[in-house]
Specification:
- The chain has about 180 residues and is α+β, with helices and mostly antiparallel strands.
- The chain is built from two helices and ten strands, in the order αββββββαββββ.
Length: about 180
Amino acid sequence: MTTRRDIRTGVASFFGGATYDSAARIYRPTPLATSGLAGVRPYWTTRFEDHDFLAGLTADRKMGAVMSVHIANDSERRIALGGPTGGFKSRPLQLELWVWHYARTAVIEAAQADLDDLLDAIVGRIHGDRTLGNTVLEAGESPRGITTATGAVPQAEPGTPPTVRQEAVISFDATVYPQA
């Protein structure tokens, strides 16, 4: 049976890479490091530290992001075929990829553009492998498709260096077929 933990871990490693940093509880370096994704956690954390947003990215990169996997909803339905043991189960899930972006810049537009490019890269990775590395049967293929929503206005923080923080959520349906 595919468990919720299996799904979270599989999705996190698909986007975060095969290496799990157990001290920080994050997958990194990621296959999307050139787009600014520094790491992916299978579960939420209380707070990401500033260094988490840029860990593993090139030294000259002043903007980066971290992501967490959230299972917003799941259900299980048995589809019976024939006798009492025939059939299979369908388990659709609503997945959300929460992205927190950090930029060492005073230029809000540059930070927003960097986040846009990263969101496009994440969605492109879903399109490139709808099984998310064999974690699910299909992802983003339901009538709902893939939705990207950005949070409130980016938050500029004065200081040396000045920073901009913003967030986004990529949501989509995925389906697994656990054993009947």
